[in-house]
Amino acid sequence: MGDLANCPRCGALFLKGPLDVCQNCYQEEEEKFDLVYQFIRQKKNRMATVLEVSSETGVEEKLIMKWVHQKRLHPAQFPNLTYPCERCSNPIREGKLCKDCADELKEGFNDEQPKTIAEKEAEYEKNRAYINVSKWES
Description:
Number of strands: 4
Order of helices and strands: EEHHHEEHH
Protein name: Flagellar operon protein (TIGR03826 family)
Largest sheet: 2 strands, antiparallel
Keywords: Cell projection, Cilium, Flagellum
Organism: Aquisalibacillus elongatus
Mean pLDDT: 86
């Protein structure tokens, strides 16, 4: 069972479950989605950007980017529909980070990993002890 929450769009109280907005706002979003989808399905509009789709349909850019992020509007079919990278705001078609930001983070992790291994080896050597078993047997 979901939690009670206020709708981020209209402020109404609703039972939060798989939907992140109330039922009325969800229906409005679905109507807007149908409008956007009908617009970009036309051959002349398939190469439209989020800004162009927004200005032609009157649907907020944020909502269109949400659908692209959710893969409801597939970038393979509509290649100019993008949303911003969460780190640098460059336009991307999938994931949360652009390739440059992802590579930079991987490089940072790789730089830190050897230090951690070296630190663990140093701690092991420091705590290593020698026990003479024959001393305790007599």
